[in-house]
Amino acid sequence: MKKPATRSKETTHERIVAAAARAIRRSGYDGTSVADIMKEAGLTHGGFYAHFSSREAMLAEAADRAGADAAAASARVAAMVPPEQALQRMMSFYLSREHLKAVETGCPVVALGSEMSRQAPEVRGAATRRIKEMIDVVARHSPDWGQPEAHERALVIVSSMVGTLLLARAVDDPKLADALLASTLKHFSPTES
Q1: φ/ψ (deg, to 5) at 96
Q2: Statement: residue 89 has pLDDT above 90
């Protein structure tokens, strides 16, 4: 059994990581300061180094958490339907108006993709692991799972979903955003293939 002080430190650490995961998706890696994250977590800036060796260590954990949250959301969506409907349901969830608006809790690849190449190796490594996981989730729910083409198809689907959501968030025209989301869903719909 863990000591109460250890549990308290773990709880505080988790609060910081959760706040950082939201903050990086909202403001980007470079737009997120340690002071802002600590304030959002309800803590003082001085306590930061009791939890992390560096800002990059915190960003790596935040990137990992954001990616884990996204993967868990996809898994929940897939689990709600029969296996043959899982991929389409995941895509519908990902390319929904709700996800479009959920910047702080949505896909971190869309929110942070253009910044990832300039991050420290530990941050890029965490993001890369979660992108691979996202591709694997799509491949495992593809109708051609087990075939050599499943992974390649998953790469195309994930790239299309991320690109579509990124463009839909970038434009200031809600009709265009909706058209982008709908057209990608239509393109990958089993009846349209």
Answers
A1: -95, 160
A2: yes
CATH number of the domain at 55-188, out of 1.10.357.10, 3.40.50.300, 1.20.1380.10, 3.40.50.20? Answer: 1.10.357.10
Q: How many CA atoms lie within 13 A of 94 on its CB side?
A: 33
φ and ψ at 171, to 5 degrees? -80, 155
Q: Could you give the CA distance from residue 74 to residue 184 in angstroms, rounded to a whole number?
A: 18
Residues constituting the chain: 193
Structure tokens given for 87: 């991929």
CB-based contact 90:74 (threshold 8 Å)? yes
Coil vs helix vs strand at 172? coil
pTM: predicted TM-score of the whole model, two decimal places: 0.87
Letter for the amino acid at 20?
Answer: A
